[in-house]
Amino acid sequence: MKKLSFIALAIAAAAVMSTTANAATGTLQFTGNLTAASCTVTPGGDASAGPGSDILVDMGSVSFSDLETASPGRGSVGVAVTDLSFDVSCSGVGAYNTVVMNFDPQAGTGRDASDSRLLALATGGAAGAAIAVVDNNRNIIDMSNDPEVRAALTVNAGTGAGTAKIDLAAAYLRTTGPQTPGAANGSLPFVLTYE
Length: 195
Description:
Elements: H1 2-21, E1 38-45, E2 47-49, E3 55-57, E4 68-69, E5 81-91, E6 98-103, E7 129-134, E8 148-152, E9 154-155, E10 162-174, E11 190-194
Parallel strand pairs: 4-10
Antiparallel strand pairs: 1-5, 2-3, 5-10, 6-8, 6-11, 7-10, 9-10
């Protein structure tokens, strides 16, 4: 009996080894650049500075009846928009001419389940709406596609200091499902990179 078990085990091991032997292999080659560039973002418009590097955006109290409806064909927003204006001040950016604001919705409140272009509201509050982040032309910035916003850096060649302006806005949009009034909060982390 032990001999049969050993033979079965040897056959199973040979099958696993032959599968492993046929697997493709490769190497991850990482490239990049570390920089001494450092920027601060000063909020303007309807935003204000919060604790640490947080930016507080007061969207106000808005009725569901005043909201536009999110739909696949809707690419812009024009109602109940909260203006955001960010002044970016940098040091050590002499070699760069662009600042990129990269958003990470999944590290915040996530993407809306019914429309992944939109930022989901925090659980435990209002439902039936989501937050659209829009560019300065009021076009929705698609949260489903690793979104980013680019701005030209104006750099002082002598000091290496740079400035940029990023104009955005945000608005609530009605989504599918029942409309439940309540706190309509969301969070959207961002990171600045340089090119």
